[in-house]
Specification:
Elements: E1 19-23, H1 36-46, H2 53-60, H3 65-78, H4 83-89, H5 94-107, H6 121-134, E2 141-144, H7 150-162, E3 179-181, E4 188-189, E5 198-199, H8 207-214, H9 228-240, E6 243-247, H10 253-259, E7 269-271, H11 278-287, E8 292-294, H12 301-307, H13 309-312
Parallel strand pairs: 1-2, 1-6, 2-3, 4-5, 6-7, 7-8
């Protein structure tokens, strides 16, 4: 049974939650970050051979050969849809599982790729935030289920390089941007100086640095007794929002429940449906009583935001 975050003080300024973006794993796919099944397959591959570099790095983090091989054998035989599903079932493997996730996702960090022009929806978000800052309006509140810090890095670089007043910022709070990592995050980046374990983005890290970053991940079952600060703030933002836009989201029932999306309000919920099957779309429409407005299964996040009225109308 869910228990609330221990700190009851949750406050947003009037109008701050006009738009909430709920970001799922598909929203980082354009940067080469693997989705659920692909990530799981890579973890299985990385833990098979004791002579491989990923295996040796896990040993350097303090995990024994026997532990790694047991983790490998069980996850391979379990045939889960995602690593989160497996770790939710086998909590004794949480530490090594988080480390295995971290070494893959951190290895995918590429600072140059963050600023690619083609099919990069981060650029559309940049333009929206820039216009709203200049218009003295609130930017979208961002609720992300992703562990990776690509969006954080992109937003920091954009804000600190575009606006003189943010040139030395060390927190999004300084720029009145709200980003909530509801399932945790891969540590903190080097501009976040108040955190001792901050790290650079897209640079080679030692096994110990990867291990430290991995400890910021929160497996869904770890949220059962305490949703944590970010999830509770996210729920509050969604309650107050005029519109909620799901980006690269899988619409997992448990995640919707944790967000407090158990009743659907007309003309409030929108989202991408890229590669969602017809049966799943039909199920979502039935459960939401047709109050969830979805894009086409053929539309990428970039294509969706380029054409969706719920995004374009925000500029007016």
């Amino acid at each position: 049974m869910w228990q609330p975050y221990k700190n009851d003080f949750i406050h947003f300024r009037r109008g701050e939650c006009r738009t909430v973006l709920v970001v799922g794993a598909g929203a980082s796919a354009h940067l080469g970050f693997p989705l659920g099944a692909e990530l799981c397959s890579t973890i299985i591959s990385n833990t098979r051979n004791p002579e491989s570099e990923p295996f040796k790095n896990l040993v350097a983090m303090g995990f024994s050969h026997a532990n790694i091989l047991s983790f490998h054998a069980n996850i391979e035989r379990s045939f889960p849809h995602s690593i989160d599903e497996f770790l939710s079932d086998r909590s004794e493997f949480v530490d090594i599982g988080r480390a295995a996730i971290a070494q893959i996702l951190i290895g995918c960090e590429d600072e140059k790729r963050l600023r690619q022009r083609d099919d990069n929806w981060y650029g559309l978000l940049r333009d929206r935030i820039k216009a709203e800052i200049k218009g003295n309006e609130f930017s979208p509140v961002i609720v992300t289920f992703n562990y990776d810090l690509s969006l954080d890095k992109f937003l920091y670089d954009f804000l600190s390089s575009t606006f003189q007043r943010y040139a030395t910022m060390n927190s999004f709070d300084d720029a009145v941007i709200r980003v909530f990592h509801v399932h945790g995050r891969l540590g903190y980046l080097d501009y976040e100086v108040k955190h001792r374990s901050s790290r650079p983005y897209g640079k080679a890290l030692s096994p110990n640095e990867i291990l430290v970053a991995s400890q910021g991940i929160r497996i869904p079952t770890q949220l059962d007794n305490d949703f944590g600060r970010d999830m509770v703030f996210a729920r509050k933002a969604i309650q107050e929002a005029e519109r909620v836009i799901f980006i690269g989201f899988g619409y997992d029932d448990n995640n919707l429940y944790r967000l407090g999306v158990d009743t659907w309000e007309r003309e409030k919920y929108f989202g991408t449906a890229y590669k969602l099957g017809k049966a799943r779309i039909k199920e979502l429409m039935t459960r939401s009583a047709d109050k969830l407005s979805l894009g086409s299964p053929d539309e990428t996040v970039f294509d969706y935001l380029t054409s969706a009225d719920c995004w374009k109308n925000q500029l007016t």
